[in-house]
Every structure is written in structure tokens, then in C-alpha cells.
Amino acid sequence: MLRDDITAAIRRALMQELAAVGYGRLSIEAVARRAGVSKTAIYRRWSSKLDLVLEIVVAAAHGKLPALDTGTLRGDLALLFQVVAHALRHPLASQIIPDLLAEAARNPTIDQTLQSVLRTRQHEIGGRLIERAVRRGELPAGTDPEAAIDFIVGPIYWRLAIARGPLTDTYLDTLVESVAVGLGAGPAVPRPRDGAGPRHD
């Protein structure tokens, strides 16, 4: 029987080693040293470093997210972006994800796995978000979910993997409004200040 604590140690070591050296220089020997286990312990669980890395990626992609249902499209977008930004601000994620995206261009197996798990996750989360917004009347009934999901997640991936810019709160607030308007929700209605209300002169 495989011990869960050893499996967890190997997964942690993999993430740290992947962040330190990248996929191309990653070795089972180094992961084993970092985890304090033998190479045999790893090979009992995974047949290669590719299998090990892909299993971690798939597990991370299917991690539990909070219920993204705030009652408004902008609220849902804000919460989704905050959750994603929190995950991507982690030093390991910020180093590993760009490296894997680059490696995917050279390795068809990694590319196919990333495409499969990421698209499935995007449709699972984004599809529900769009469906609720259409049902509430915030988006037009003919909104294309496929294009909408690309519009929602695209800027985050661009910012992280290509521009390598910071995901600041100000940027995310601007992104929420830009995406909402771009999807057809119309501009946000300003809230009246405390004590202010319609005048009856």
C-alpha cells in the first residue's frame, strides 16, 4: 500500500523543483532528493516525470473553487478574478505556469493535457457564470459562451504568461468593468453617496 504522506511529499517536492529549474531540467533524482525519498518510491506511483507533472497539473486544475454566484455579473467576475489572481500570485504558480505553457509548444502531450483540463475547467466555471448573467437579463440572450469565456480568461493568461505584469487590485477592478461592458452588460450604474438620493425640488 502506498503511503499518503510520501505521495504528498513527492508532490510538494515536484512543485518546488519545477519552479526552481523548469520542466526541461527537471529530474526524478532531484525530486526524490528534495522529498527525502528514493527514486523507486516515485516510480511506484508515476512511470515518468511527464506523468508526474501532468497529474499535478490536472489535480491543480480541478481544485475546489468557492461558489461564484454573487447575484450580479460584475460581482461574479470580481470574485473569479480575485480567486485566480490569488492563486497566480503564489511564487510557485507564477514560475511554473509560464514554463509549462512554453514547454507545451514543444511537447504535444503537455499541450493536449493543458488544453483539455484548462478548457474543461473554463467551460465549467465560465459557462455557468454566463448562463446566470443571461438568465438575470444582464447579458443578451444570444451571448456566445465560447467567445465570452475566452474574453473572460484571456486577459489573465496574457497578463501572466506574455506581458508578465502584476495582477494588482486596480488592474482587476478595471478588468471587471472592461469585460462586463465588452460582453454587452452596459456600463455600471454609479451608486448614490450616503445621504444622497433623488431630489424633489
From TrEMBL:
<dbReference type="InterPro" id="IPR050109">
    <property type="entry name" value="HTH-type_TetR-like_transc_reg"/>
</dbReference>
<dbReference type="InterPro" id="IPR023772">
    <property type="entry name" value="DNA-bd_HTH_TetR-type_CS"/>
</dbReference>
<keyword id="KW-0805">Transcription regulation</keyword>
<keyword id="KW-0804">Transcription</keyword>
<dbReference type="InterPro" id="IPR001647">
    <property type="entry name" value="HTH_TetR"/>
</dbReference>
<dbReference type="InterPro" id="IPR011075">
    <property type="entry name" value="TetR_C"/>
</dbReference>
<keyword id="KW-0238">DNA-binding</keyword>
<dbReference type="InterPro" id="IPR009057">
    <property type="entry name" value="Homeodomain-like_sf"/>
</dbReference>
<protein>
    <submittedName>
        <fullName>TetR/AcrR family transcriptional regulator</fullName>
    </submittedName>
</protein>
<dbReference type="Pfam" id="PF00440">
    <property type="entry name" value="TetR_N"/>
</dbReference>
<feature type="DNA-binding region" description="H-T-H motif">
    <location>
        <begin position="27"/>
        <end position="46"/>
    </location>
</feature>
<dbReference type="GO" id="GO:0000976">
    <property type="term" value="F:transcription cis-regulatory region binding"/>
</dbReference>
<dbReference type="GO" id="GO:0003700">
    <property type="term" value="F:DNA-binding transcription factor activity"/>
</dbReference>
<dbReference type="InterPro" id="IPR036271">
    <property type="entry name" value="Tet_transcr_reg_TetR-rel_C_sf"/>
</dbReference>
<feature type="domain" description="HTH tetR-type">
    <location>
        <begin position="4"/>
        <end position="64"/>
    </location>
</feature>
<dbReference type="Pfam" id="PF16859">
    <property type="entry name" value="TetR_C_11"/>
</dbReference>
